[in-house]
Amino acid sequence: MKIARQNLLETARAILVELGETKDSAAVAADSLVRADMRGVSTHGINLLRLVAQRVDAKMLELPTRVTNVSDFGATAVLDGNNGLGQVAAYQALKLCMSKARQFGIGMVNLRNTNNIGALGCITGEAARQGLISIIMTNGNPSVAPFGAAEPFFGTNPISVAVPRGALEPLVLDMSSSVVARGKIRLASLSEKEIPLGWALDPEGNQTTDPKKALKGCLLPLGGPKGSGLAMMIDILSGMLTGSAYGDKLRSFHELDGPTGVGASFICIDVARFVGVANFEQAVTEYAQRIKGLRRQPGFEEILLPGEFETQKEHESNESGIDVPEAIVKGIDEISARLGCSSRLGSIGS
After folding, report:
1. pTM
2. Which of 5, 109, 166, 186 is deepest in the core (most CB within 10 A)?
3. In sequence order, what are the beta bridge partners of 200?
């Protein structure tokens, strides 16, 4: 189904408020969820409302979200998300990090005891649109086997880096440290299709093309030892350094087995402290143009820059509506009905 952005926003806000979130924080979280769907990152979209409702009912998610300051020294700070909505805590961490970067040239804010903070590219992109280089990383529950291991220990542990380009959309790298997202394996399982060899291991530790066996096993790291090392360092920086959970101590947001314990690290850099802003943005723009103008391999219609596909998808979603599977629409409508709030997902109207 194609749903208008405003309809999704209003429905998500209403559900979150009924679940106990404040109006302001519900607006922040709803915007994060809807933007993820607009950019084609549906694993971090409004489907998560179903999980939020389940965790609130099970008293495993604390609403309204309450972010507290653990420490604040110069260019650094540590915040505690107190097991509230990750999107809300991440927004507050980003605001503080940006403020510190403008004051000190660079800022680093660590966030502990939170939950899924959303699509990282949406967060780093926000800082880059305001002229700052932004780096964000976060950990997650065990779903990826370290290189050579036959069982999961790391999360998919994503990292995002965004670079400003003046009036143009920023360059936004947003990637997990696993070969593929677990959501793609779930989709293959529902479609009863095989997955490529090299994506995942079965419960016995053997590579498999059977998505059902893969879901009972674990994912493989991106690039073998390279992705494994990246996942480890992200876990150390966003878990250990923040004072949050890490490794096999983390819990899944998809399972009702306690607080997830997710941690995240935010770094913002003020370009003006290093080179002239205008010169830097012009150099990045020309650099990107040179890459896009290179001779292409056979079969490639275009050379895409980091984040370019998601930006194109977001523009399409704005113009023609956001793609939302009927099953998700039905689930959101059921939550709305149970909570007694109205849903506007039945049409593409404005």
Report:
1. 0.94
2. 109
3. 208, 219
